[in-house]
Amino acid sequence: MKLSDFPKDILPFILPETRNDLIYRCLGCGREHGIKKLLYTCPDCGQVLLLYDREFEKLKKIPGKTWRRIFDYRKLLTLPALKGIYRYHEFIGPVLPLESIVYLGEGHTPVIEANALMQEKAGGKFYFKNDGQNPSASFKDRGMASALSYIHFLIQQGIVDDVLAVCASTGDTSASAALYASYLQPHIKSAVLLPHKKVTPQQLSQPLGSGARVFEIPGVFDDCMKVVEALSEKYAVALLNSKNAWRILGQESYSYEIAQDFEYDMAGKVVVVPIGNAGNITAVMSGFLKFYHAGIIETLPKIVGVQSVHANPVYRYYQEPDPGQRKFLPVTVKASVAQAAMIGNPVSMPRVIHLVDQYNQAAGRPLVFFVEVMEQAIMDWQLQANRNGHVACTHGGESLAGLVAARQLGYVEKNEIAILDSTAHAIKFSGFQEMYFENRFPNEFEVRPDSTLINLPELIRPDHLEKVPAPGKPLWGEDFDCFVKAVSQEIADLLKLKKV
Fold this sequence. Notes:
With 500 residues, the chain is an alpha/beta fold. The chain is 38% helix and 13% strand. It has 18 helices and 13 strands.
C-alpha cells in the first residue's frame, strides 16, 4: 500500500521518527548509563541492565486507539525496515533510523489454534505461536534483529568497527547470531561457544553454514556462558547472549504481536513460555507492561513460566510464598529434551524478579505463575501436538505440558485462552523424536516411550517377489507389473482399504 493511500489522520504516524531517549538502567544500584558504548553489566556494581525510554510518557500522550490503528496500518507497508519487529519501532528501538534496521524476515510468526481433539486433551482452548518460522527457525531472531541493528547503527556512526560478535549457546542462539552477523559482513564476524555434544546436529550445522567460528568446550551451557563473560570483560567483543539488553528489547515484539493478533484484547488470555536463560519471559512481561501503560491493551494477560524438573531454578525460587524469604540458588542441570532451557543459573534472573513484581503490582493481583514438568510430559505432549497439525519443538511441548500443569494447579481456568510459545521448529529437535520412537533414550533423560505414540517406517517387500527395483536397476514389463500389484495389495491390506 502506498503512503499516499493511507488515511490523512494516521499518515503522520506511519513512518516513525527517531528519538535519542534510551539509556541503560542498572537493576542493582539504579545508576543510568548512555548507550553509545556497548554495555552488558553495570560498570559500577556488575548487575544486569535493562534499556529504558526516558520519554516513555510522550508515547502515552497518543491514545491507545490511535496506536492500534498505527500498528494495523503499518501491516500494509512494503518497507522492509517496518515489516519485522520494528513495526513497533517506538517501543523497541526509537534511536534507530530506518536505514540501520536489519530485516531478514523475522517476527510476525503465525498463531495457530489447536484442533478440537487437542483442546479437549489439554483442557481448554489454546494456540501455538510458531516462532520456529523465524529465519533461523527460532525465536532468537527477534533479539538478534534488535542487537545487530543497534551494532549496525554504531558502525554507521563510526563509533565501532571490525566487530567480533560472540555468544554462548545451546544451539538456537548461535544459529541466530551467526546468521545476522553474516548479513553484516565484512564489518562483523562471529564466534560461538557450544557445550560439546550437547547441541543437536541440525543446530550445529547452522552457525557452521553461516561461516562462524564454532568452538565446542566441555560442560554445559552455564560453563560456556562463564567463558563468554570472561571474554566480554577483557576483550573488545560484542556479547550477543540475553545478558545484552538489546536482545531483551527485540524479544518484546513477541508480546506486541500477540496483542495485535488478538485485536488488543488480552482479557482472559494466558501466555505460556518455557524458561531457559530467562530472557524470553523477561521480554514478554516487559512488552505487555509497556503496551498496558501506553493504553494499547486494557488488561494484562496471565503469564505462566515453565521449567523442566531437570533445570528448574526459577520455579524453585518462587516456591517460597514469602517474598522476603526467597533466595535464588543455581541448580546443577540434568539431561533435558528441552535442550535450550537446560540452564541452571539464568543470567536474566534479576530481571525476572524485578519484572514479576512490577507486573503483579500493575495488575493489582498475582498474574505471573511458575510450574515445573517432567521430561516424560514434555515429549508426550510435543508428539501429541505434532500429530494434530503443529510443528512444535520440545520447548513447545514443554509449554503445552506447562499449560496442563497450570490448569491442574488452578492457575489457568477452563474458559481462559492460552497462547503457547513454540520457540523453535520441530525439525531442530527431530533427534529426540527418533530416540523416542526407537526406545533408545539414555536413562538420565527419564523418558520412556508410550507405545501409542511410536511411529516407525514399515518396509514393504513382499516375500514371494523374486525381483524388485533398485537404484540403477529398474524393472520392466511383466516383472514391474507384478511388483506394483504385490506392493499395492499389501499396503491396501495393512490399511484395510475398501475397493471402489
